[in-house]
Each structure stands twice: as C-alpha cells, then as structure tokens.
Amino acid sequence: MILSWDEEKLIRNIRVNSVALTYITDTLQYIWTKDSTNYREAVPVATKVLVALWRLSTGTGYRTIGHLFGIGESTACEITNAFCNLLVEVFLPMHIKLPDARRIQETMDKFEQKSGLPCIAGAIDGTHIPIRLPDRGQATSYFNYHGYYSIILQGLCDADHQYIDVNCGWPGAVHDSRVFRRSSIGISLENHTSYLEQFPPIPVMGAQVKPYILADPAYKLCDYMIVRYPRNVCVNAERRYFNYKQSSCRMMIESTFGRTKGRWRILMKLNEASLKNVVNTTIACCVLQNLCEQFKADYLKIWDERSEREITYDPPNANPNAPFQQLIPNQPQHQQGHAVRNALTQYLWQHRGQRN
After folding, report:
1. Dihedral of the CA atoms 71, 75, 81, 86 (nearest 10)?
2. Parallel/antiparallel/unpaired status of strands 207-209 and 163-171
C-alpha cells in the first residue's frame, strides 16, 4: 500500500520523496537482503526501509509499527537499529563529508549573497538530544541547562541546510566550546590543517581573511571562527549591523537542526534506548536530513509544531532538584580574530548600500 502512495503522502508519513526512497532501498538491496528459512519468511528490504523510516519520522512505538507492517515488535526494533547502523556505515561517508574547493566556493557565494559577508564557509552549533536517566554515577554530567538529561549533537552546515560534519555523544552538561575543541573538525581548524586551508587568504580592509565558520558567543573568537560582538561592546551602528548580518547566516545551523528534528521526531522524544543506539540514531537522522535536502524533498511547516509528548524545555524526566554543573572552559580571545572581525565589520558597513 505504502509503495503506491503519491509524493505528498510519502513526505507526510515517512519524510522522504520517491527518489530518495528508491535510492536508499536500491543501495541497501544487496547489503541487507536475507534468505527465508523453514521457520521464518525474510522481511523484504523495501519493507524494512519503510519500517525504520516510519519509526524515525514519527517516534511511534514498536508494537504499533509491528501491527502496521505485520511483523513482531522485536523485529521492528531490530530492523530500526540495523537501518541506523547501515546509514552510519554506508551512507555517512558519502553524504556527510567535508566539501571540496568547488562546494566551499558555492557555500561562500551563497552566504555572501545573503549577508554581504565574504568567506563564510559554514555555521556551527550544538543541540541537545534527550535520553533516559543515565546511571546514577553519570547523571550530573548528562543533566543540561534546559533541565533534562541529554547528549550533544554538534553540527557544521553549509548554506543549503546540509551537514558537512557532525559529532555526537558528549554529555549534555559539557559546554559547546569544549565539544568543539575535542572534535576532529575543531582540532584540524586549531592546527591549521583543516579542509579550509586549500583557500589562500584575501585582503579585506587591510586584514588577511581566510574562509571561516560562524558561531555564537559560546565559542571563542579566532581567525577561523567569527562570533558576534558581545552586547557590552556593541556600542555603535556598525557593530550592531555586523551582528545582525552575522546572526542571519549563523541561524542556518539552527534551522538545519530544526529541520532535522522536525522531520525525524524520534529526536524530540525521550529515547529509552542505550546511549550507543541513541548516538547511532541521531547520526542516522542527520544523514537522512542531507538526503532529503539533496533529493529536494519538501519540508512542511507543520513539522515545526511540537506536541505535548515531545521535548521542549520541561520534559517528563526533568529533575529540577538535580545538581547542575555546566562545564564552561576559559575563553581566551584570539588577537587575529579581533582583527578579522573588525575588518569584516568595516567592509560590511562600507558596502551596506549595495545590498538589500
């Protein structure tokens, strides 16, 4: 029945369009096929893909999904976990990867067209994925400032709502900047061995500016990461204008997180699975987000709505009396970062009349 649905029904129910669904199924056809036995008929790959997509897109319980597809509850769980593992093993290296020079240039051109700021190669941030109460000895580390237990998903995206790097699994109480510093992308940027080094710097208002990524003030200001001016030093029109334009592009990562959680509602619900499975499920949903964008699957505004059973800022497992210790590292400011931000501010203000 589902395979006969039109595009609108496919997108509303399993979030992917027919092109993406065919691509996923065909890719897994020879990897995931199992033979029937005398005791059990094998579930077709197409059905397994639909089972997993239904679970990830709706968060529906395995018992209900089993009734819907005519399989056992444990089989539905096994299929979903296997599907997420395959997305991470097979699709992740192909669809979430650091861009080549052509794609970096396309991203910088799109961000510059949007804001007037040159050399923006992406936007980075972290978001929380709810989990069940961890072991007693670890509870404090996973209790975040929103008031629930979580792990952190760090995402770096381009100008098209697509991830180019993800890192997932740090406890919810860890500060975003620490997650970044310990991630592979953070280490490579700090050591100047990252994918951005293939571009030479360009002169901007007397400063040498290389491609950089945008972040919020939780991250340190440096030549490869530009954050907005703090409010206490945002004292003139030039800096306020820069902050507005910087934020308009930095919001791309927040929008990407929003589209990921809007499509794959499993990320908005308290996940009773093990931490390993929650991490796999989260990364799998990031892969699916990229596939949806690459195959031009529509995003429906209704998905931005949150039901009362989904995590906002006061989930069922929140414990207002639990101890909270946010791990905030020191934030030494990079002198070259100040020079780059000041130059970009002057450039943006000087060219403000040339753009809408």
Report:
1. -70
2. unpaired
143 in Cβ contact with 324 (< 8 Å): yes
* DSSP classification of residue 221: P
Let me know: does 121 contact 107? Beta carbons within 8 Å: yes
DSSP assignment of 323-351: ----B----PPPHHHHHHHHHHHHHHHHT
pLDDT tens column, 232-284? 887 799 999 999 999 999 999 999 999 999 999 999 987 778 899 999 999 99
The H or E element spanning position 187 is: helix 184-190
Tokens representing residue 62 in the block: 């395995």
Give the pLDDT band of residue 320 (cuts 50, 70, 90). Answer: very low
- What one-character DSSP code corresponds to residue 167? E
Q: Do 55 and 76 contact (CB within 8 A), yes or no?
A: yes
Task: Convert the pLDDT of each residue in 140-193 to its tens digit.
Answer: 899 999 999 999 999 999 999 999 999 999 999 999 999 999 999 999 999 999
pTM for the full predicted model: 0.91
Give percent of the chain above pLDDT 90.
78
> Where are the strands (E) in the chain, listed by range?
120-130, 150-157, 163-171, 202-204, 207-209, 212-214, 225-226
Spatial separation of the C-alpha atoms in residues 129 and 116, rounded to whole Å: 33
Q: Alpha-carbon distance 132 to 134, whole Å?
A: 6
